[in-house]
Specification:
This protein has 206 residues and is α+β, with helices and mostly antiparallel strands. The protein contains five helices and eight strands; from the N terminus they run H-E-E-H-E-H-E-E-H-E-E-H-E. The strands form two sheets. Strands 3, 4, 5, 6, 7 and 8 form a six-stranded antiparallel beta sheet that branches. The protein has a two-stranded antiparallel ribbon with strand order 1-2. Strand 1 and strand 2 form a beta hairpin. The two termini are 30 Å apart.
Length: 206
C-alpha cells in the first residue's frame, strides 16, 4: 500500500508508467507523475540510474528530496555549481559516496528555483536532519540569502534486504519524478542546462 502522502499525490497528479531498461533483456515498469505537458524521459532515466548504481554499492540507500530557492534571477547555474562543489566536499568527507540529480525550474516567479535529490550510503546516515542543517548553511552562503525548503516526508530509507523494498523504491521514484515535469523548465539558452546529475558508474562485475 502506498503511503498517505503518495496516495494524495497520485490523486493530484495522476500516474503514468515509465519503462526503465533494467538490462539488455528486461524493462522495469515504474510509476511516475502524469503532467499535461509531459515529462523529460532523460531526467527520469538519469535519476533511476544513479539510484540503482548506489544500490549496487550499498544495501541501504537514503533518498533525500529538497528545494532550493533564490532571492533574485540568474541567467546561469553558477550558484548551483558552487553549491554542488561545496556540498560534495562536505558529504563525501562525512558520508562517503553520494549521487544526485538537480533540475532548474521557473514558472510564475521572477527568479528560478531548483529541485534536488540525493542518494547516500544508508549505512552511514539513517536520518537527514544534520545533513539538511549543513546544506541550509551552504546554500545560504553561496546563494546570498536564498532559502532551502524541506518537503513533507522528504526522505526514504531503502534497504534491499527488507520486505517491501520494491514498493518503497517505487514510491521514491514516483516522488523524484516531480523533477522531470516539462512545463516549468525554461531554456535560458542552449548552453545553460535545465538539469544535471552525478556520473556514478556501476561497480565492476555488477
Amino acid at each position: 500500500m502506498p503511503s498517505q502522502l503518495v496516495s494524495e499525490l497520485k490523486d493530484r497528479y495522476g500516474v503514468e508508467i515509465h519503462y526503465h531498461k533494467a538490462s539488455e533483456e528486461s524493462y522495469m515498469a515504474l510509476e511516475v507523475m502524469k503532467f499535461p505537458s509531459g515529462y523529460y524521459h532523460e531526467i527520469i532515466e538519469a535519476a533511476v540510474k544513479q539510484l540503482d548504481t548506489m544500490l549496487c554499492y550499498f544495501s541501504k540507500v537514503l533518498v533525500l528530496r529538497l528545494d532550493l530557492r533564490l532571492k533574485s534571477y540568474s541567467p546561469n547555474n553558477k550558484v548551483m555549481s558552487q553549491f554542488s562543489s561545496r556540498m560534495l566536499q562536505k558529504i563525501k568527507k562525512t558520508y562517503g559516496k553520494v549521487a544526485y540529480i538537480w533540475v532548474r525550474e521557473q514558472d510564475k516567479a521572477d527568479q528560478q528555483h531548483y529541485h534536488i535529490a540525493y542518494f547516500l550510503n544508508g549505512h552511514k546516515i539513517a536520518h537527514p536532519s544534520k545533513l539538511i542543517d549543513l546544506l541550509k548553511v551552504i546554500w545560504d552562503r553561496v546563494s546570498g540569502g536564498g532559502s532551502l525548503y524541506v518537503p513533507k516526508n522528504c526522505f526514504y530509507q531503502l534497504s534491499t534486504n527488507q520486505e517491501g523494498f520494491y514498493e518503497t523504491f517505487k514510491e521514491a521514484v514516483y516522488r523524484i519524478s516531480y523533477l522531470a515535469k516539462c512545463y516549468s523548465k525554461r531554456r535560458v539558452s542552449q548552453s545553460i542546462k535545465n538539469y544535471s546529475a552525478s556520473r556514478l558508474v556501476y561497480p565492476k562485475g555488477s
